[in-house]
């Protein structure tokens, strides 16, 4: 089918639209990523999918399209922890850099990719820059105990353009969900554990279904302000997935929100100073984030052991 036919299939409204197969979704997303769609067609796609919603097969197909357009890097046998960071923080400090550096301290290789479409938010890359970790200029595989972070536009220009369409259209599109669960190293054959977050409980089930379809590895949680890090005030539900199957589950903390001494309205430099105090032991690491670190370490060990046995 051509672009117009695909738009007819997905653009018939919530009840009349038809779901695409995984192969069809990959073809459609490929055209969008390669800049082969007219701007009006990009807008039609964004609005149609916003109304229809994505199926697990469609999301897996979108991932296929993006993964095939990633650079071919020499594979690594050591699994990499992938942290997609696409929201930043508006009220509380952004603590994704803390999570990344705690994982590095545990000896894990960490790849953080991201950007934000809202200029009013403090982002993880900004804070990491203040902490002495400059952004990479190209995708590469981190070594054990190393953090690599880069802007989405360094991953793929077409993907960044699709994310930026939100500023013109005013609506999220499938790319915003795609990037939060995307492993840029899949095309290289490097195993990775993606720490994927969601903002609404129903998205937990849809993303679990997507990872099942893609046979991928992930830790899913309801992140803080849309970031892949646990809320420091309360432990969220977490679900560990390996090869598309749930292998661990952690129930959310109930009851009142814990009182945590976290200043609000910080700029990037103050946010970085706060994280450095936690890394230095001058402030306690929030219990929920410490628990998340151990959950990731446990899944990483399981994934590494499976690779060694293969």
From TrEMBL:
Write down the NCBIfam families for this protein, in alphabetical order: PRK08136.1
Segments forming a coiled coil: none
Name a single GO biological process: L-tryptophan biosynthetic process
Q: Which residues form the Glycosyl transferase family 3 N-terminal domain?
A: 5-68
- Give the highest taxon in the source lineage: Bacteria
Biological classification of the source: Bacteria, Pseudomonadati, Pseudomonadota, Betaproteobacteria, Burkholderiales
One cellular component term from this protein's GO annotations in UniProt = cytosol
Recite the UniProt keywords alphabetically.
DNA-binding, Glycosyltransferase, Transferase
What Gene3D superfamilies would the database entry show? Answer: Nucleoside phosphorylase/phosphoribosyltransferase catalytic domain (3.40.1030.10), Transferase, Pyrimidine Nucleoside Phosphorylase, Chain C (1.20.970.10)
**What InterPro entries does this protein's entry cite?**
Anthranilate_Pribosyl_Tfrase, Glycosyl_Trfase_fam3_N_dom, Glycosyl_Trfase_fam3_N_dom_sf, Nuc_phospho_transferase
Spans through the membrane = none
Protein name from the UniProt record: DNA-binding protein YbiB
Q: Which GO terms describe its molecular function?
A: anthranilate phosphoribosyltransferase activity; DNA binding
